[in-house]
Write a structure and sequence with these properties.
This protein has one domain. The protein is 29% helix and 15% strand. The chain is built from 11 helices and 11 strands. It binds heme C (HEC).
């Protein structure tokens, strides 16, 4: 459930990406709190206002040419029950349907212009996100050419120098150290914007450069650095993305293709269906703990198979006994 990502009351209050500014920005007065009320009542069409600006930004960043092309190693198959070692023991992904041949599914296909697939940032052995340790291994194994290392949003800013291995290591510092991807979102326009940006703490020079960031205190792109969320167990979600800005998974897949993969065209309806069917058809959980042993032995309900059986019984608030008492 999303509660691990975000306080739900904050989430409602900040439908627009304002919340993420807080550590970076000094907002003018209490204007952000005033805008929260309106944002909560905003029509869906208004809350999708961010999308065109974010897509245009990623497309424009194609002027910063990546020196590396090419693809990444992809597993040929995701088995019905697929188990990997992880630092605490073993992690497993279960597909109640059939195994997935990755060559036949758009989630694993290169649909864009920079060699990336969804699997670039959502990998099975990392619980369908990426760990910083794995990203560092990928950097070492590929000398920084793996497609996760692309200027558009792998680097701290698309303008970064990547001409030497040392320069690359600096450019991809946040990805290597913390597993963070740059999310460039436009400021909302009036009447949704009820603040202006007074000050920016911008160690990477991205938001303060008009070519990649703000063009005025009320217009342009703000860069935030965020971990990829796991693209698994999606049936239990109450919102999509850290700030809840995507309304459904098909649209999320389109936007991810146009932004992260810098595709020139959206995935076809068939490709969208393959992506959504795959990501909603997988369940992932720790299955073995190095100290406790099997997490599904002797009636224990750990592991992804037990988790998959929970979905039919799931409802929003299922883990909230106080809420249940009030509502009954
Ligand atoms: C360059 C890395 C990258 C690539 C490539 C990528 N993603 Fe993501 N994904 C992220 C990041 C970062 C987030 C969180 C961003 C945010 O919330 O602002 C995310 C979030 C998501 C989520 C939201 C999960 C949740 O709990 O809300 C889904 C679903 C998802 N991605 C699916 C996909 C699909 C499908 C593709 C391929 C079309 C894809 N991603 C390609 C980095 C990536």
């Amino acid at each position: 459930m999303r509660s691990s990502h975000f306080n739900p009351s904050l989430l409602n209050a900040f439908r627009l990406p304002v919340a993420a500014f807080v550590p970076l920005w000094l907002l003018t007065g209490a204007a952000s709190f005033a805008s929260a009320q309106n944002a909560r009542n905003a029509a869906a069409s208004e809350t999708r206002e961010w999308a065109q600006g974010a897509i245009d930004h990623a497309q424009q960043m194609r002027i910063h040419k990546d020196s590396d092309q090419g693809s990444q190693p992809t597993p040929p198959i995701i088995k019905k029950l697929d188990i990997d070692d992880d630092p605490g023991g073993r992690i497993a992904t279960f597909q109640p349907g059939v195994a997935t041949i990755t060559a036949n599914n758009a989630f694993f296909q290169d649909l864009g212009t920079n060699g990336r697939t969804c699997d670039t940032c959502h990998q099975k052995q990392n619980g369908w996100t990426v760990s910083a340790a794995d990203v560092r291994d990928r950097f070492a194994d590929s000398a920084g050419t793996d497609p996760i290392f692309r200027l558009v949003d792998g680097a701290t800013c698309p303008t970064d120098n990547v001409s030497t291995l040392g320069a690359k290591r600096r450019a991809y510092k946040l990805l290597l150290d913390k597993g963070l991807i740059r999310i460039g979102l436009p400021l909302p326009s009036a009447p949704n914007l009820e603040f202006s940006v007074a000050s920016v703490d911008d160690p990477y020079g991205c938001t303060t450069n008009p070519a990649t960031g703000l063009t005025s205190p009320t217009t342009g792109i703000v860069s935030m650095y965020r971990r990829p969320l796991p693209s698994t167990n999606l049936g239990f979600l109450t919102t999509i993305m850290w700030d809840g800005r995507e309304s459904n998974l098909a649209q999320q897949g389109i936007d991810a293709t146009l932004i992260h993969a810098q595709a020139t065209a959206a995935p076809t309806a068939d490709q969208q269906k393959q992506i959504v069917d795959f990501e909603t058809g997988i369940f992932t959980a720790q299955i073995f703990d190095d100290e406790a042993g099997s997490l599904h032995a002797r009636g224990a309900t750990g592991g992804p198979i037990a988790l998959s059986l929970q979905l039919a019984k799931f409802f929003v608030g299922v883990n909230d006994p106080v809420g249940l008492l009030i509502s009954t």
